[in-house]
Amino acid sequence: MGVVTRSCGAARRLVLGLAAGLGLALPAAGAAESLEWAVKAAYLAKFGFYVEWPAEAFEGPGGTLNLCVVGDDPFGNLIDDAVAGQKVGGRAIRVKRLKNLARGSGCHIAYVGSEPRPPAVVENVRGSPMLVVTDASSATPGVIQFVLKDNRVRFSIDDEAAAQNGINVSSKLLSLAVSVKPRGRR
């Protein structure tokens, strides 16, 4: 993978956009859980800025970028507030809540919580142009997996899974991950 260079302004926007999750320690018990979901919602709202999907993943040039919450919704209004007014590549971000996830669901980013069981859900959409995000407790990780490290919400990235799904993750986002499974050599 070649080195991608961008302006300092782009790097600054990335750092500011993700700073909530990188530098924010979680306080005690109940507040910690609430803050954890707020940070995860902020990440989910920003991930789309650092991922490239194939053009055919969208319903034309004016189509929305669909951020799906699959199964139980731990976010409430947090995720709706995080994406309010944002556009990725000129596309409005729309939040969809689904009981199940399947190919053709129209999701570009899919957060798969604990229910339905992530292994089956993640395997069903492998190979689809979708950024699947799971939690560390998931038996089958997605492209991005949230982890708690040093009492902070962080993430790891499986760039090989991204390649299998036909999406590209920015080198800037890869550099912020606590670990990266690289793409295989061809």
Overall geometry: globular
CATH fold-type name: Rossmann fold
Described by strand count, sense and barrel closure, the largest sheet is: 8 strands, mixed
**Percent helix among the residues?**
25-40%
- Total individual domains: 1
- CATH architecture classification: 3-Layer(aba) Sandwich
Structural class: alpha/beta
Number of helices: 6
What does the radius of gyration come to? 16 Å
The CATH top-level class label: Alpha Beta
**H and E order:** HHEEHEEEHEEEHEHE
Termini distance?
11 Å
Residue windows where pLDDT falls under 50 for at least 5 positions = 1-29
Number of strands: 10
Report on the structure:
This protein has 186 residues and is of the alpha/beta class. It has a single domain, classed as 3-Layer(aba) Sandwich (Rossmann fold), CATH 3.40.50. Helices cover 32% and strands 24% of the residues. The strands form two sheets. An eight-stranded mixed β-sheet has the order 3-4-2-5-6-7-8-10, with helices on both faces. A hairpin with a 2-residue loop joins β3 and β4 (91-98). α1 (8-22) packs antiparallel against α2 (29-47). It is globular, with a radius of gyration of 16 Å. The N and C termini lie close together (11 Å). Mean pLDDT is 82; it is low at 1-29.
